[in-house]
Specification:
The structure holds two protein chains of two kinds. Chain A has 16 helices and 30 strands. By secondary structure, chain A is of the alpha/beta class. The longest helix of chain A is centred in the first third of the chain and has 21 residues. The radius of gyration of chain B is 36 Å and the shape is elongated. The chains are: A alpha/beta, B alpha/beta. The interface between A and B is large, with 80 and 88 residues.
Chain lengths: 591, 665
C-alpha cells in the first residue's frame, strides 16, 4: 500500500531547528532547515547525516522548501547546502528570498565575529546558497519535476511566510510552517483551500493556549508601556528585526500620535530602516488595510520611531527601545537588558516565544538571579512582562486550519510534547483523523489509499450516462467496461472496443428456451396474440412483428411452432444473446 | 468547441470559448478608436473649438449643425466621446461562466459586460492587472466626467442620416454599439467580481476545465492563458512580448502541445523597432528642449511610460537636461508610480534583484526624490504654481480627445518650438491630431509597441507547434497600406483559421477520452488477465458516480437476492439500477475441457457430436443441447433458469482455463 513517511530532524516535540523529511510516492522533500537558538554546539543544526549514510544529499533529496525567514526555519541552510553539500533546488517565496540572506549574515556575524567561532559558514557561502533558491509566487503550481509539484499558500506569521502543499499524483502533504489565523496590524490571516491532503504537518507552538482577543492584548501592551514611561521608566522590547517589530512599531506609532506623547522611541540596529523598506516593497504581502492605503500613507514610514545609538541607553528619563534579538540570547537587546535590569522602574516586555536556554526563557520562567559570562550574577529587579504577540496560531486557530484543509491525517511539530499530547487528543476527538507527534529522528508512516486515475473512452462514458430510463446525471449508474492495461497506461473502453483493439473475436453466447403454451389456434394467431401481449406489457421497448412470423423484442427473438405431437400445444422458442436482459420483465406464465 | 468572436479589433480582443460544459470569455477589450470621431473635451473653454462651423450637407441642409462640426476638412461629433462595445447579441452573455483577463489594456470593457448583461460569473486576473486596470479606468472616467457635456448627439447615428455624411463618419461601423463611458460605481462593481490569480496557478472550473495564467512578458502582470482538460489544451495568447523591458519574461514552454492556439494582440506597428523608437524619442525630446520648446507626450498612465522614464533617467544628465522639469499629470499618476514599485514578483529578473537589496525596482523613485520628475493629479491646483517652461509633460489620453493632454495641445499647438511625441500605438497620430489642425507644433511619431512581431510569431509557432492556430483575419493578410509585405502576416502550417467580428468558429478537435477514478476497493477487486505479453485486460462492472464533472467508479452494491418465486418484483426507483455483469468472452472453447468440466459438475450423460462447424454437446437428462462453434456457443434448454446460469458459468470457466493455458506458453 502506498505510504508517506515523515521524520523530523528538528522540531519534533520541540521548538527550534525546524527540519522535517517527507517521503511521498518515491520523492524526498526536506521542509525547512533551521537552527536551534537554545544550543551553541552541534545540536544547533539538524543532524543531516541521518538523511543518507553514503551518497550525496543532492541525489537523495528532490527539493528543499523553506517556509519563512526566521532562523529556526532557515538558519542551517548555508551549512546544509555549502558545507554538507546540496545542489538541488531550494524553494521559498520572494520576500523570504530577499530577507533570509540578511538574517543569515546577521547570525553569522554574531557567531563568528562576536563569539569568535570558527568552522562556521562564510558570507560567500550564504551567497552561493542563495543562488540555489528558486522564488515562488503564492498559489503558483511549481513543477519540481514531472511528478512532484508544490504550491505556496499565505501563512501570515511574518512577511513572506508560506504554507506549502507537496503533491505527487493524487497524494499530498501540506506543511504549515509557522502561521497565524488572525490578521494583525500588518499581516493578513493564513488561508488554505479545501485541498484534502493525506497529511497536514502543522506547527503547534500554542497548542494549549486560546488567546484572548488581539485588541485586549494590544490595549494591555500600550497600558504597560504608557504607565512605565509616565513614571519615568525605560521600556525594553526585545524583538527580531523583522516581523513582530513592525507590528508593534505601528501600534506604538499610532498610540504616540493619538496621545501626543513625547518620550522617545528607538529601534536598535541599522536593520530597521532596511527592514521597513522590505515591507514597503513587498506591501502586497501585508494585510488588506495597509495595501489599500499605501499610496496615501505608507504605514512603514514612522515619524516617532528613531534609530538607536548605544550611548542612548545611559540617557536619563523615559524611553522605549526595540532591540534585537528577541530572546535576549545575545547582541544589543542583552546589553541593554544588563544595563537596565537593576532598576525596578524599568520594564522588559517579551512579545514572543523564548526557546529554552535563552535569558528570555529564564526570566519568563521567574528566574531573577542570572549567571552571566564570567560567573557574574545579574539581579533582575526590572519588571518582566510576557505578551504573546508572536504570530502563531493558537489551539483555536490550528483547529480552524484543519477544518479548512480537511486532511486525512495530522502530524504535529514545532511545539512541546506535553502540549502536543493535549492537542492531539482534541484533534482526534473532533475530526476523527489520526494525529501523530513524532520526536526528532522518529519516523511516522502513513498509509494512503489513492484511487487510480484511468482514461475512459468518451463513447463508453456517454453511453453509460445516456442509458437508463431516467436521464438523471446525478444518479449513480452501473457501467460495464474493459480495462486495458498496457505499460503504465490504463484505459477503460467498451468490451467490444477492447476486443477490436486487441484483434480478438467476441465469443457469442446464445440461449434458446422452449416455452410450451396451450393454444389450439393457428400458429400465426398465437404469434399475434403473443405480439399484442408483449406490446401491451413492454411499453418501453421496441417490439416488432417481422414478416417471417417471428417477434423481436430488442435483440430477443421469439418464434412459435406447433408441437409435433400435440397440435393444441404451441412451442415458443425464445432466443437471446447473453447480455443485460429485458427478460425479467416478460412473464410467459401469464398465458 | 466553439469560438464566438465579439470584437474585430486584433489587439483589443473579446472572444467567448465554449469548451466542454464551460463558457469562457477571453478578454474584454474596448475599442476606443471610435472616440477619434469626436471633438476633444477641453478642460478650459476653448474659443477655437467652440467657434468651429456646423456641418452643412451637400444638399445644403443644416439640421446636423449642432451635432457635427467641421475642422480643417474633417467632420467631428460634438458630444461626449463614445466607445465601441464588443458584440452583445451574438450569444447570451449572462451564460458566461468566467472571464479571463490577459492584461490591463484588455479589460476596459469589463463594466459593460459585468454590469449590463446579467453576468453572474467570476473574473480572473493577476493583481497588477487589476490594480493598474483600475487606474486606467479611473483615469478614463475622471477625464470624461470632469468635463460635463450638456448635449449628446444621436441624430447622426440614424442609418439614413449616416449615409449622407462625409467619410470617415459615413463608414463608421457598429455605431449602434457605441456607448458612453461607464461610471466609477460600475467600475467598482465590475472589479469586485475579480478573483486574483498568480502565474502558473491552476484554477479548476466546475471540475471540467482547468485554466492557468502564464507570464506573457508584455506588461506588469500580463498573462496568456492555458485552458485545458485532461486531453485537450487550448492556449490563448494575447499581448505577449519577447523584449526585455520591465515585466517578467514570457513563458513560452508551457504553450507547447496545444490542440488550438488562439493568437491575438500582436504588434500594431510591425515595421517599427521599439529600441530604435526609444532612441528617436529621446533625441527629439532633447532637441526640442534645447531649442527652448516644450515636449508633450500623450500616454497611458502605466506601461511604456515606466520604460521611457527609465531611459530618460539614464539619458537626462548626459544630454544636459538635468534642469528641465518632467511632469507627469494624471489623476492616477501618483498611484501608478507607487504601484509600479510594489510588484517585485511580477518584474524581470534585474528589477527583482534590486528589491532584494532592498531598493525600489524602478529608477523613477530617484527621479521623484531628486525633484526631476513631479507628478500631479491635474493641471489645476499645485501644478499651476510649479509649472515652468520649457518642460516635458507626460499626460493622457493618447487619443487626444479627453484628459489634460487636450489643454496642452491647445496651449502649445500654435508654436513650432514645441513638439508632441506619440509613443502609444493604439491611435493613428494623424487622426488624433485632426481636430487640432492647422497646427504649428512639431509632431513626431515614435510608436513603441513591444508586442510580438511576425518574425517572432513564426518562430514561436515553430517552437510550440500547436495543431491549429486561430487568429483575427487581419493577421492572415498583409496590412492594407503595405499589401506587398507578405512577410507581415502569419505564416504557419496548417494555415490559421481566421475570425472577424460577430463570427462563430467551430474549432477542430476530437475528444476521445475522459478521466475517471477507480476507487481503491474496486481496483482491488479487479482480476486482470494477461491477454498478450505486456497487455492485460480486466472486466470492470462498477457504479459510475458523476459529481461536479468528476467521474468516479466504485464497487457496485451487493447484488439483490435472487427471487425465490417466479413472480418478480419491479426494480424500485430509488435503488440504483443493477444489472448483471456480462463478462468479456473471446476465443473458442476447447470442447474436451468443457466436457470434463461438465462431468465434474455432475452431468453424467454428456454426449458429444461433431458438426461441420464445431460440436454439439447433449445433456440428455436435462433435455439440453449446447452448440459450440469457433466464436459462438448456443445453449438450448427449457425454461430452467438455474440450469442456464450454471451452464453459463461453466462456459466462462472453460474460457478462463484456456486463457491460463495460453499464459503458460
Amino acid at each position: 500500500m502506498p505510504e508517506i513517511k515523515v521524520t523530523p530532524l528538528g522540531a519534533g516535540q520541540d521548538v527550534g531547528r525546524s527540519c522535517i523529511l517527507v517521503s511521498i510516492a518515491g520523492k524526498n522533500v526536506m521542509l525547512d532547515c533551521g537552527m536551534h537558538m537554545g544550543y551553541n554546539d552541534d545540536r544547533r543544526f539538524p543532524d543531516f547525516s541521518y538523511i543518507t549514510q553514503n551518497g550525496r544529499l543532492t541525489d537523495f533529496l528532490d527539493c528543499v522548501i523553506i517556509s519563512h525567514f526566521h532562523l529556526d526555519h532557515c538558519g542551517a541552510l548555508p551549512y546544509f547546502s555549502e558545507m554538507v553539500g546540496y545542489d538541488g533546488p531550494i524553494y521559498m517565496t520572494h520576500p523570504t528570498k530577499a530577507i533570509c540572506p540578511i538574517l543569515l549574515e546577521d547570525y553569522r556575524k554574531i557567531t563568528v565575529d562576536k563569539k569568535g567561532e570558527t568552522n562556521f559558514f562564510t558570507s560567500q557561502m550564504i551567497k552561493d546558497c542563495m543562488k540555489k533558491v528558486v522564488a515562488v509566487h503564492l498559489h503558483q503550481t511549481v513543477q519540481v519535476d514531472e511528478e512532484l509539484e508544490i504550491k505556496a499558500y499565505y501563512a501570515g506569521h511574518v512577511l513572506g511566510a508560506a504554507m506549502f502543499q507537496i503533491k505527487v499524483g493524487c497524494e499530498s502533504v501540506v506543511y504549515t510552517g509557522d502561521y497565524n489565523m488572525t490578521p494583525d496590524r500588518h499581516l493578513g490571516a493564513a488561508w488554505i483551500d479545501k485541498c484534502r491532503p493525506d497529511l497536514l504537518i502543522t506547527e503547534s507552538t500554542y497548542a494549549t493556549t486560546i488567546r484572548d482577543s488581539k485588541r485586549c492584548r494590544e490595549r494591555d501592551f500600550l497600558k504597560k508601556v504608557h504607565e512605565t514611561v509616565e513614571r519615568g521608566g525605560k521600556v525594553l522590547i526585545p524583538v527580531f528585526a523583522l516581523g513582530r517589530a513592525q507590528e508593534l512599531c505601528i501600534l506604538l506609532e499610532t498610540f504616540w500620535e493619538r496621545m501626543n506623547l513625547k518620550a522617545p522611541i528607538y529601534f536598535s540596529t541599522g536593520l530597521t530602516e532596511k527592514a521597513n523598506h522590505y515591507y514597503k516593497l513587498f506591501i502586497t504581502w501585508t494585510n488588506q488595510k495597509i495595501r489599500k492605503t499605501f499610496v496615501q500613507r505608507n504605514m512603514f514610514e514612522f515619524k516617532h520611531i528613531k534609530a538607536f545609538d548605544r550611548a542612548f541607553a545611559d540617557n536619563p528619563g523615559p524611553m522605549v527601545v526595540f532591540a534585537t534579538p528577541g530572546m535576549l540570547h545575545a547582541g544589543q537587546s542583552l546589553q541593554i537588558f544588563r544595563k537596565w535590569a537593576g532598576n525596578e522602574k524599568n520594564m522588559v516586555i517579551m512579545p514572543g516565544y523564548c526557546v529554552q536556554g535563552t535569558v528570555g526563557h529564564k526570566i519568563l520562567s521567574g528566574q531573577r538571579k542570572l549567571e552571566m559570562e564570567g560567573r557574574q550574577i545579574l539581579e533582575v529587579k526590572m519588571q518582566v512582562e510576557y505578551m504573546s504577540f508572536s504570530a502563531h496560531a493558537d489551539a483555536k486557530g490550528i483547529m480552524q486550519l484543519i477544518r479548512q484543509a480537511e486532511p486525512r491525517n495530522v502530524l504535529l511539530v514545532h511545539g512541546e510534547a506535553k502540549k502536543m499530547e493535549f492537542l492531539k487528543q482534541k484533534i482526534e476527538q473532533e475530526f476523527h483523523v489520526n494525529c501523530y507527534m513524532p520526536a526528532n529522528g522518529e519516523t511516522t508512516t502513513i498509509f494512503t489509499n489513492p484511487s487510480i486515475p484511468v482514461d475512459i473512452s468518451l463513447g463508453l462514458l456517454k453511453r453509460e450516462t445516456a442509458i437508463g430510463l431516467l436521464p438523471d446525471a446525478k444518479k449513480p449508474k452501473l457501467m460495464h467496461g474493459t480495462l486495458i492495461m498496457k505499460d503504465n497506461s490504463f484505459r477503460l473502453v467498451s468490451p467490444e472496443q477492447a476486443l477490436k483493439e486487441l484483434g480478438l473475436a467476441e465469443h457469442q453466447l446464445r440461449f434458446t428456451c422452449r416455452v410450451h403454451i396451450q393454444d389450439p389456434r393457428k400458429e400465426h394467431e398465437t404469434v399475434l396474440r403473443v405480439y399484442n401481449h408483449l406490446k401491451g406489457v413492454l411499453k418501453d421497448y421496441s417490439v416488432q412483428h417481422l414478416p417471417d412470423g417471428s417477434i423481436t423484442v430488442e435483440s430477443i427473438l421469439i418464434q412459435a411452432t406447433a408441437h409435433s405431437e400435440d397440435q393444441g400445444t404451441k412451442v415458443l422458442l425464445v432466443s437471446w444473446t447473453y447480455q443485460v436482459g429485458i427478460l425479467e420483465d416478460i412473464h410467459f406464465n401469464q398465458f | 468547441m466553439k469560438l464566438y468572436c465579439l470584437s474585430g479589433h486584433p489587439t483589443l480582443p473579446c472572444n467567448v470559448l465554449k469548451f466542454k460544459s464551460t463558457t469562457i470569455m477571453l478578454d474584454c477589450g474596448l475599442d476606443m478608436t471610435s472616440t477619434l470621431n469626436f471633438l476633444p473635451l477641453p478642460l478650459v473653454q476653448s474659443p477655437r473649438l467652440s467657434k468651429l462651423p456646423g456641418l452643412v450637407l451637400k444638399d445644403g441642409s443644416t439640421f446636423l449643425d449642432k451635432e457635427l462640426k467641421e475642422c480643417s476638412g474633417h467632420v467631428f461629433v460634438d458630444s461626449v466621446p463614445e466607445f465601441c462595445l464588443p458584440e452583445t447579441e451574438l450569444l447570451d452573455l449572462s451564460t458566461v461562466d468566467v472571464i479571463l483577463i490577459s492584461n490591463y489594456h484588455c479589460m476596459m470593457a469589463l463594466p459593460y459586460i459585468t454590469e449590463y448583461t446579467g453576468f453572474t460569473g467570476t473574473v480572473y486576473a493577476t493583481e497588477p492587472t487589476v490594480q493598474i486596470g483600475r487606474l486606467l479606468m479611473e483615469e478614463l472616467v475622471n477625464s470624461i466626467e470632469r468635463v460635463p457635456k450638456a448635449q449628446s448627439a444621436s441624430t447622426w447615428k440614424n442609418k439614413e442620416v449616416q449615409r449622407l455624411l462625409p467619410a470617415p463618419l459615413k463608414d463608421a461601423v457598429e455605431v449602434s454599439m457605441w456607448r458612453k463611458c461607464y461610471t466609477m460605481p460600475e467600475v467598482n462593481a465590475a472589479l469586485s467580481k475579480i478573483q486574483l490569480v498568480g502565474y502558473s496557478q491552476k484554477i479548476e472550473l466546475f471540475g471540467a476545465v482547468q485554466v492557468t495564467p502564464l507570464s506573457s512578458g508584455y506588461a506588469l502582470g500580463s498573462s496568456n492563458w492555458i485552458i485545458q482538460s485532461h486531453y485537450e489544451k487550448v492556449s490563448y495568447v494575447s499581448g505577449s512580448s519577447l523584449l526585455t523591458t520591465h515585466p517578467q519574461p514570457m513563458d513560452q514552454a508551457s504553450l507547447k502541445n496545444s490542440d488550438v492556439l488562439i493568437l491575438t494582440g500582436l504588434t500594431q506597428i510591425p515595421t517599427a523597432n521599439p529600441d530604435g523608437m526609444v532612441g528617436e524619442f529621446c533625441s527629439n525630446l532633447a532637441m526640442t528642449v534645447r531649442n527652448g520648446g516644450n515636449v508633450l507626450v500623450p500616454c497611458y498612465p502605466s506601461g511604456v511610460i515606466y520604460d521611457l522614464l527609465e531611459c530618460l533617467y539614464q539619458y537626462i544628465d548626459s544630454a544636459g537636461l538635468s534642469n528641465v522639469p518632467f511632469y507627469f499629470i494624471s489623476p492616477v499618476a501618483n498611484s501608478s508610480l507607487e504601484f509600479s514599485q510594489i510588484f517585485a514578483e511580477w518584474l524581470c529578473h534585474n528589477k527583482q534583484t534590486k528589491v532584494y537589496l532592498p531598493e525600489p525596482p524602478f529608477p523613477h523613485a530617484e527621479l521623484i526624490q531628486t525633484n526631476k520628475l513631479k507628478h500631479y493629479p491635474s493641471i489645476h491646483g499645485d501644478f499651476s504654481n510649479d509649472f515652468k517652461q520649457p518642460c516635458v509633460i507626460f499626460t493622457g489620453h493618447p487619443s487626444l480627445r479627453f484628459g489634460d493632454v487636450v489643454h496642452f495641445m491647445e496651449l502649445w499647438g500654435k508654436s513650432s518650438l514645441n513638439t508632441v511625441i506619440f509613443t502609444e500605438p493604439d491611435f493613428s497620430y494623424l487622426d488624433a491630431l485632426a481636430p487640432y489642425q492647422p497646427l504649428a507644433m512639431k509632431c513626431v511619431y515614435c510608436p513603441i509597441d513591444t508586442r510580438l512581431n511576425f518574425i517572432q510569431v513564426s518562430k514561436l509557432l515553430k517552437e510550440v507547434q500547436p495543431l491549429h492556430v486561430v487568429c483575427p483575419e487581419q493577421y492572415t493578410q498583409p496590412p492594407p497600406s503595405q499589401s506587398h509585405r507578405t512577410d507581415l502576416m502569419i505564416d504557419c502550417q496548417p494555415p490559421p483559421m481566421s475570425y472577424r467580428r460577430a463570427e462563430v468558429l467551430t474549432l477542430p478537435y476530437k475528444r476521445r477520452y475522459e478521466k475517471i477514478e477507480i476507487m481503491p476497493e474496486l481496483a482491488d477487486s479487479l482480476v486482470p488477465l494477461e491477454i498478450k505479453p505486456g497487455i492485460s485486460l480486466a472486466t470492470v462492472s462498477a457504479m459510475l458516480h458523476t459529481k461536479d464533472n468528476k467521474h468516479v467508479l466504485q464497487l457496485p452494491p451487493k447484488p439483490p437476492q435472487p427471487p425465490t418465486s417466479k413472480k418478480r418484483k419491479r426494480v424500485s426507483d430509488d435503488v440504483p439500477e443493477c444489472k448483471p455483469l456480462k463478462p468479456l468472452l473471446s476465443g473458442s472453447i476447447p470442447v474436451d475441457q468443457f466436457v470434463q468440466t461438465l462431468e465434474k459438475h455432475g452431468f453424467s450423460d454428456v454426449k458429444v457430436e461433431d458438426t461441420a462447424k464445431g460440436h454439439i454437446v447433449l445433456l440428455q437428462e436435462a433435455e439440453t443441447l449446447i452448440q459450440i462453434e469457433e466464436d459462438s456457443t448456443h445453449i438450448i434448454c427449457d425454461n430452467d433458469e438455474p440450469l442456464r446460469v450454471k451452464l453459463r458459468d461453466l462456459v466462462h470457466e472453460g474460457r478462463k482455463v484456456k486463457l491460463c493455458c495460453s499464459d503458460a506458453h
